[in-house]
Design goal:
Strand order of the largest sheet: 1-2-3-4-5
Helix content: 25-40%
Largest sheet: 5 strands, antiparallel
Structural class: alpha+beta
Shape: globular
């Protein structure tokens, strides 16, 4: 079982106990406003999402990790790698993404977790490039991307929802841990 420990977090595969806390995160409009069409997800939709992430682990050898706080064991959110199939122009790429409950914002958890995932992409999965697709105007995520050393590459439009997206990238051969 793939697991990564950072000073404050455990990045691990999903368990049945993660469904309810992840569903709580997915029902928060402030969290979900930047994701997909901006709608909250139901418990059933969250279960489908987690199942999809686990299938990607099986199919691709990477996926989204559950992020657990080391000190308390609470599920804080998710972080990981995925193929951004929703964006045809990037469907051949691997993207990093994250989602955290609002109570965990502003504490450096996203940066800490994403840094560990970039190291995982380079050292364990042998990827030479990772992108990030972010909704235009999501400054908090833009800040994390810059901290990771990712560079703005281009703007594009979400093919289904029509909102502006930004694409960032990093060549992992130049990545500085």
């Amino acid at each position: 079982m793939t697991e990564i420990r950072t000073p404050r977090l455990i990045l691990r595969r999903w368990t049945d106990d993660d469904l309810a806390p992840m569903a709580d995160i997915n029902t928060d409009p402030a969290v979900m406003r930047w994701i997909g069409d901006g709608s909250a997800l139901s418990l059933e939709q969250t279960a489908e999402e987690i199942e999809g992430w686990e299938e990607e682990w099986d199919d691709e050898g990477f996926g989204l990790f559950a992020v657990e706080l080391l000190a308390s064991g609470e599920l804080a959110g998710c972080v990981g790698l995925s193929v951004p199939g929703f964006l045809p122009e990037a469907a051949h790429e691997v993207a990093i993404s994250w989602r955290f409950g609002r109570q965990y914002w502003g504490q450096g958890y996203a940066s800490e977790a994403a840094q560990a995932v970039l190291e995982f992409a380079l050292q364990d999965r042998g990827l030479d490039r990772v992108i990030a697709v972010n909704r235009l105007g999501h400054e908090a995520s833009d800040n994390v991307l810059r901290k990771l050393g990712m560079a703005f590459e281009r703007e594009t439009t979400h093919p289904e929802y029509g909102h502006a997206l930004t694409v960032y990238s990093i060549d992992l051969t130049e990545y500085q841990a």
